[in-house]
Amino acid sequence: MARLDGCHVLLCQGDFHGAIPQLETCLEAFQGMSLPIFSSAAAATLGYARVMTGPPEDGMALLREALEQLAQGRRTMEALFTTYLCEAHLRARQLGEAAALAERALALSRERFERGTEARALYLLGEIAAQGAETEISERHYHAALALAGELSLRPLVAMCHVGIGKLCQRTGKREKAQEHLTTATTMYRDMRMTYWLEKAGAELKDGARSRPAHRRRLGQHR
């Protein structure tokens, strides 16, 4: 159980490859001891790690199996694991399925007062709308997720929201706002030593800087 909890931290940090062998060990152990609740948690977490390291389909079956098993018992962490399956469909660019799962996770989290998962579901709705080029809807969800994550001191999710908003600002030509949000995210990731996410946010920041008009770059240098 301690190893499984430790793997949640690894997933948050983005160390998916480091988590996978430990999660496989956890899943085997829980199945061997006939502990279905913990087996489901290990399966869902392993499925999510596989989604993030390879083709999304690699982890979808485990996630679905875990959710089906949870539905027959106490349904502990069902909302969170639904967001994992949502993200798998999002990475596969299956936006309809992803949206339905995000809405379900949002409803479940609010029904059960799981406010951290509520913030994550709102963030994913922002990501889905962004992929669908629904800028206003995406921005609304991102800001709702940012406000709730900030209230709950969920700093990794706060940083992810800043990245999402920054990318939206880049798309709509608000370059200074984009740089502001992406700089905030990279600073937070660096402080939390989340190197995987730091590299991604840093790449967005560099892309935004390169896309600035030449005369604006010269102005920035003179300042």
How would you characterize this protein structure?
This protein has 223 residues and is mainly α. Helices cover 84% and strands 0% of the residues. It contains twelve helices and no strands. It has helices spanning 2-13, 16-32, 36-53, 57-71, 78-91, 95-111, 115-131, 135-151, 155-171, 175-191, 195-211, 214-222. The longest helix has 18 residues, at 36-53.
Summary, kept brief:
This protein is mainly alpha-helical and 223 residues long. The chain is built from twelve helices and no strands.
Q: Looking at the structure, what is the overall shape?
A: globular
How much of the polypeptide forms β-strand, as a percent range? under 5%
Helical residue percent? over 70%
Assembly form of the protein: single chain
Secondary-structure element order, N to C: HHHHHHHHHHHH
The end-to-end span amounts to 54 Å
Rg for CA atoms: 19 Å
Low-confidence stretches: 214-223
How many helical stretches?
12
The total of beta strands comes to 0
**Category by helix and strand content:** mainly alpha
Q: Roughly what is the average pLDDT, rounded to an integer? A: 90
Biggest sheet features: none
